[in-house]
Amino acid sequence: MTYENAVEKIHSLLTFGSRPGLDRMRILLDRLGNPQDRLKFIHIAGTNGKGSVSHMLASILQQAGYKTGLYTSPHLKDFRERIKINGEMVSEQYVIDFVRHHADLFSRVKPSFFEMTVAMAFKYFADSQVDIAVIEVGLGGRLDSTNIITPLASVITNISFDHMALLGNTLEKIASEKAGIIKPGIPVVIGTRDKTYDFVFEQKAQTCETPIEFASDNWTTTINIDGSFQLTRKNGWHFDHLTSELKGLYQRKNIPTVLETIPVLQQAGLKISDQQVRQGIERVVTNTGLFGRWQTLSNQPLTICDTGHNIDGLTEITQQLKQCRYRKLHFVIGMVSDKDIDSVLHILPQDAVYYFCKASIPRAMPEQQLAQKARQAGLQGEYYPTVAAAYEAARQAASSEDMIYIGGSTFVVAEVI
């Protein structure tokens, strides 16, 4: 079996869909020797920001000297991006061996793509004897494949509209699904307080008799002229001129969430200094290999890509675009059909030139349909059959003083990177 064969086998499980529930996961892990029982975890859910928070926490733990596992999704280019230790992807050989050695088990249990991937991550982390593993929820929380663990801390970044068909069509319902990772006696950190749904988390924490903190209650964050962050907690703990390799302005919400989690980990016995916190946030991309978060691809013209793909994420991006200096904005965009596309299109800048495209996945909205919807929202541009063609057209049209932005979907960014 080659690595390509193994990945093809794993991806074939996508035909089973998301298949919420933990019964298959329990059976699968039991047959693998319950590797999760030999690990310490941090569990992270949320609509936006959970990837950035996961990577920053992993980077901090690496700086503190801990052998750190990191499980995230989706991947951009290589399946192995989902499973890392100290920034290094799982080896191709491990993936091959895992798929080959457990073929009979998979035939009997019939796990979903996500169940098999999570099981592989837990087994790999246990086999590698990591000190701690940072685990990002795939979808929701309550019934997500990762919700089989008992972590040192549960973290929920924020709540926004996304995956409504599976999680519910109100913020309260979505919050209830995310709150499913809150467990008895395990401290929980919430990134942003919002009166629309914060009571959901408070009630769940009360039921579980566990402490809860809202990072937005405790931290004041300002952005300095040089782009660095000034952060002060209400107890006086502070970080002056904190910089990060993650440049998006939305990190002003994610960094306090990370900082609020550190005391929980310290109380659990982990030794983490302020200097290691600073270095971990500063070096997050170097340490973990994270891509696609307000990532600069070129400087002339300035070319930025970002994986933000829902109304909340793209609202933050449009605000950041207003602070960028350029003569003309060229916007390469593709989206998947199950998003709230009409709402997103109505918040995008109307003075940009748009290049509508379709990522190479079945869920992607056809470029002609996206362009038609965009015209109804007052956006103007041409459509292209592929991401590469749209990007090339933008590059040909843009001058050195212009800006190219690429986004709308994780899959669009993946094809550009």
Secondary structural class = alpha/beta
- Which residues form runs of ≥5 with pLDDT under 50? none
Radius of gyration equals 21 Å
Strand order of the largest sheet: 4-3-2-5-1-6-7-8
Q: Percent of residues in helical segments?
A: 40-55%
The N- and C-terminal alpha carbons lie at a distance of 28 Å
Major sheet details: 8 strands, mixed
Q: What sort of overall outline do the alpha carbons produce when their principal axes are compared? A: globular
Query: How much strand content do the residues show?
Result: 15-25%
**Total strands:** 17
What is the residue-averaged pLDDT?
Answer: 93
**Count of alpha/pi helices:** 18
List the helices and strands and how they pair.
Blueprint (H helix, E strand, L loop, with lengths): L2 H10 L10 H9 L9 E5 L4 H14 L4 E4 L11 E3 L2 E2 L2 H10 L1 H7 L3 H15 L4 E5 L16 E4 L7 H4 L3 H8 L9 E3 L7 H10 L4 E3 H4 E5 L5 E5 L4 E5 L8 H17 L6 H9 L1 H5 L6 E5 L2 E4 L5 H11 L7 E5 L7 H7 L5 E4 L10 H10 L3 E4 L3 H11 L5 E5 L2 H7 L1
Parallel strand pairs: 1-5, 1-6, 2-5, 6-7, 7-8, 13-17, 14-15, 14-17, 15-16
Antiparallel strand pairs: 2-3, 3-4, 9-10, 10-11, 12-13
Helix pairs in contact: 1-4, 3-11, 3-12, 14-15
